[in-house]
Amino acid sequence: MTVAINQTNFTKYQPFVKWVGGKRGLLSQIIPLIPKEFNNYFEPFVGGGALFFELYSLGLLKDKNVYLFDINTELINTYNVVKNNPTELIKNLKEFKAKHSKEFYYDVRAWDREEGFSKRGDTLRATRFIYLNKTCFNGLYRVNSKGYYNVPIGSYKNPNICDELVIYNASEALQKATILNASYKDVILHVKKNDFVYFDPPYYPLTPTSSFTSYSEFNFLDKEQIELFEVFKKLNKKDVFVVHSNSDTEFIKNLYGEFHIEEIQANRFINSKSSGRGKISEILVRSCL
Ligand SMILES: C[S@@+](CC[C@H](N)C(=O)[O-])C[C@H]1O[C@@H](n2cnc3c(N)ncnc32)[C@H](O)[C@@H]1O
Fold first, then answer.
1. Average pLDDT, stretch 100-117?
2. In the predicted model, what is the mean pLDDT of residues 18-47?
3. In angstroms, rounded to a whole number, what is the distance separating the alpha carbons of residues 45 and 71?
4. With a threshold of 0.85, does the pTM exceed it?
5. What is the pLDDT of residues 123-148, one digit of tens each?
6. Using a 6 Å cutoff on CB, does residue 44 contact ligand 1?
């Protein structure tokens, strides 16, 4: 089977959140490098799930089991609500859209400081998550040391708070997916020979201060990258196809020196200043060709 397909025709299913490090802009470079054939699909750092939604759009996940993991509890709750309760979610988002203001943003942002936050229910928490994602500064997800969301409001004139079609389509794509709030390490409990695992972890920083790695209260620095490498090797030994995106740094290239490394060009936005935009090279490591 050949997968050299022009992606622009197949974007019916798309991420329902903006996500830092999201892979939408890189799909045309990633798709030709994935295994031509595989059994089940695993995306253990799912974030916005750009590759999952693209593979689904391309019909490459038909009759396969799909496992999506993320350590971010609120994100995974939102995936489950999009999957199981899109209609109530959309109704809530329309209400939030009508109420949107600076004051409303900061009221909603403060919900996670309340003791009864979890009692608000899954659908309202998911509404909050999407609302904040669409209205906050640059779609960032960042929490402080207590786990409280702390991103300021963005300066959008007309933020797209309720994208009904994207949510209904995402819900359809997720119907058969297993969605887990778990560490990527749990992938080992589920994979079998000839499965495909796509690792897209928080990137190793280009410089000590350059990269955004705090997607949650869990850091992802040298120690965590080395642990991920150990999992990569274990999966390779089990004849699982592993593809891993990361920054083009000596640290990562030395770690994965024995595997196949491709450079890809990304239009990245890292800093809050516009000077932080531009083309930078990233790498894609493959366990086999
Ligand atoms: C680079 S982003 C993934 C972006 C995604 N590929 C996309 O297209 O939007 C990395 C994700 O890994 C998650 N993460 C960080 N540490 C993790 C861990 N130990 N296990 C699972 N997920 C983790 C973060 O919450 C974040 O969503």
1. 96
2. 95
3. 8
4. yes
5. 999 999 999 999 999 999 999 988 89
6. yes
Residues 42, 124 within the same domain: no
Of ligand 1's atoms, which has the minimum distance to the CA of residue 224?
Answer: 19
Region 2-30: mean pLDDT is 78
**Residue 1 CA to its chain's centroid (Å):** 27
Beta carbons within 10 angstroms of residue 207's beta carbon: 7
Distances (CA, A) of 95 to 8, 89, 99, 100, 132: 32, 10, 6, 9, 14
The residue whose CA is least distant from atom 3 of ligand 1 is: 47
Would residue 175 count as lying in a domain? no
Q: How many domains does the chain have?
A: 2
Judge if the beta carbon of residue 106 lies within 6 A of ligand 1.
no
Which atom belonging to ligand 1 lies closest to the Cα atom of 15?
Answer: 9
**Pairwise CA distance, residues 152 & 137, whole Å:** 6
Query: What's the token pair of residue 180?
Result: 């887990």
Mean pLDDT of 67-71: 97
86 within domain boundaries: yes
Among 45, 190, 244, which residue has the most ligand 1 atoms within 8 Å of its CB, making it the best to mutate?
Answer: 45
Q: Are residues 226 and 244 in the same domain?
A: yes
- On average, the pLDDT of the chain sits at 91
pLDDT at 1 over 50: no
Q: Are residues 195 and 249 in the same domain?
A: yes
The CATH number that applies at residue 49 is 3.40.50.150
> What is the band of 176 on the pLDDT scale with cuts at 50, 70, 90?
very high
Tell me, using a 6 A CB cutoff, whether residue 242 lines ligand 1. Answer: no
Q: What CATH number does residue 125 fall under? A: 1.10.1020.10
Protein residue whose Cα sits closest to atom 7 of ligand 1: 22
Q: Is the CB of 216 under 6 A from ligand 1?
A: yes
In a domain, residue 15? The reply is yes
Q: Is the pLDDT of residue 271 over 70?
A: no
Range of the domain at 122: 76-165
Do 203 and 278 lie in one domain? The reply is: yes
Contact yes or no for 287/236 (Cβ under 8 A): yes
54 CA from centroid of ligand 1 (Å): 17
